[in-house]
């Protein structure tokens, strides 16, 4: 989810974050980082989850999309 949330063209960030605002999604992660150490693709899901938690807690804010994509959705 994080890759779409941070996309500068994404206009549905609030909706995406609202879907993650429950005790059974990102808050189940205790940031132990075992997922990052064992990821066969070399990704860092622990960091992505931590960044989503910051966005949900209003610790950081995402910039407004710089591109108007409303014409693409019609």
UniProtKB/TrEMBL annotation:
One of its GO terms (cellular component) is mitochondrial membrane. Gene3D superfamilies: Alpha-helical ferredoxin. Transmembrane segments: none annotated. It comes from the Eukaryota. GO terms for biological process: aerobic respiration; respiratory electron transport chain. One of its GO terms (molecular function) is iron-sulfur cluster binding. InterPro entries: Helical_ferredxn, SDH/FRD_Iron-Sulfur. This is Succinate dehydogenase/fumarate reductase N-terminal domain-containing protein.
């Amino acid at each position: 989810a994080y890759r779409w949330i941070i996309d500068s063209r994404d206009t549905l960030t609030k909706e995406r974050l609202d879907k993650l605002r429950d005790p059974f999604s990102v808050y189940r992660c205790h940031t132990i980082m075992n997922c990052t150490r064992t990821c066969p693709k070399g990704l860092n899901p622990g960091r992505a989850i931590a960044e989503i938690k910051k966005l949900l807690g209003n610790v950081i804010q995402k910039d407004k999309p710089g591109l108007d994509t409303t014409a693409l959705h019609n």
